[in-house]
Write a structure and sequence with these properties.
Strand content: 15-25%
Bound molecules: guanosine-5'-diphosphate, magnesium ion
CATH topology: Rossmann fold
Radius of gyration: 18 Å
Structural class: alpha/beta
Helix content: 25-40%
Number of helices: 8
């Protein structure tokens, strides 16, 4: 892993969380995006907490660390650690189950409570392949997103519609915000990279010194 203080060797790490009611397809959106896999019988997520995807933007190495709940949402018990350090979020509902759309406001509140920076947010109406049993119209989804100031997209983890696009829009938006702020403030860059290093370190106790070993703050 390279440090981000050398010119030309810049590296970004963005934490993105996926939230929304149980069984809306969060885990499948992530597995479709990260591994191009779909699981028709997926149980509540156990094990893997996040997947890292690399993207090249403007010649920069951008890593998105995308977090999936471990099924805690069934008990309304997503912890604050899950949200900590997140700079992006996909708020997912299922277009065939109206109750999951009605929960979106609550998820947005929770995100607001737990996040400390500006978060790039996208409202995602998943399972758009289920047109015949649709319970939330595209217009309703779009209107809510507009009202709350989120991006909006309907997706299908089953047939892959818009999955890559949704994740990449969020990642690009984060990148754009960060690079814009960097132009005006080097301090912000330092803060952000520290924050992200810390969030990485928290999940990987064996490398606990590594994050702080980066001389991310010493450049110029
Ligand atoms: N038809 C359809 N089913 C989906 C889609 N995404 C997920 N599912 C199914 O919905 C169920 C819940 O998916 P899962 O990813 O575990 O949801 P999570 O609880 O939000 O992580 C599973 O049976 C999936 O196969 C989709 O885009 N279309
Ligand atoms: Mg899941």
């Amino acid at each position: 892993m390279s440090s981000d203080d050398d010119e030309g060797g810049e590296e970004y790490l963005f934490k993105i969380v996926i939230i929304g009611d149980s069984a809306v397809g969060k885990s499948n959106l992530l597995s479709r995006y990260a591994r191009n896999e779909f699981n028709a019988h997926s149980k509540a997520t156990i094990g893997v907490e996040f997947q890292t995807q690399n993207m090249d933007i403007d010649g920069k190495d951008v890593k998105a660390q995308i977090w999936d709940t471990a099924g805690q949402e069934r008990f309304r018990a997503v912890t604050s650690a899950y949200y900590r350090g997140a700079v992006g979020a996909l708020v997912v509902y299922d277009i065939s189950r109206r109750s999951t759309f009605e929960s979106v406001a609550r998820w947005l509140d929770e995100l607001k409570i737990h996040s400390d920076t500006t978060v790039a947010r996208m409202l995602v109406g998943n399972k758009c392949d289920l047109e015949s049993i649709r319970a939330v119209s595209v217009e309703e989804g779009r209107a809510l997103a507009e009202k709350e100031g989120l991006f909006f997209m309907e997706t299908s983890a089953l047939d892959s519609t818009n999955v890559k696009t949704a994740f990449e829009m969020v990642i690009r938006d984060i990148y754009t915000n960060v690079s814009r702020k960097q132009l005006s403030s080097n301090t912000y860059k330092t803060e952000l990279s520290m924050k992200n290093r810390v969030s990485l370190v928290k999940d990987d106790s064996k490398s606990s010194t590594q994050g702080f070993g980066f001389s991310c703050c010493s450049s110029s």
